[in-house]
Amino acid sequence: MTVDTITHFLNEHPGWIGLALFTIVFIESLVLVGYLIPAATILLAAGALAATGHADLSAALIGATAGAVLGSTANYWVGTRFRPQLPQLWPFSKHPEMLERNRQFVALHGGKSILLSRFTKPLRPAVPAVAGMLDMNRSRFMTYNVLGSVLWAPGYLYGGFMMANSASFATTNPLQLSMLLLLLTGLIWGSYLLVKRIVASRRELSDIDLELELKSHRRQQESGKD
Asked: CA torsion sign, 114 to 102 to 104 to 87?
């Protein structure tokens, strides 16, 4: 499945854009086949196509978002239902280190791993299944799953939509699509790291303030004893 093939199909059958994107995103979210489908790049192309008025942007948004939510949910179920068999499934059977890296990622970031993986192609098809395998709380999983999906799908569709307004942009140009894909992913990861750093800095300042307050309190107690 190539971007050119899908773009050509959507050009010829714009009324199918919602169902087509739902199917593509759903399948791309599954651990067994997700690595083979360039869903994010297809969303950029679909957004650019919608900008021309040739396809319905609302249908694309609904289809892609629903596909992301339900696809990751199905992937989570696979991890829960086939927990003992997951290490024997491709690609983990051939690359067991991938399973361990994803396991560590989920253990480190918890529910946030679901949100972050939605914006990272190497993690997207695997992390929900690993979260299910590790018995992540279902409510927590769904919270981050829905949040990631409603940010990811519209983000890439609107990215393509906005880029299409540039006269130099072409929906079938793989270099332009790849550059936009990298830019969006970089912005999202950069924003996350910035927020994480700000929160950590505030926590450090709070710890320092608490330590100073405790020292001051101890000095007052010692002065009172004297």
From this structure: positive
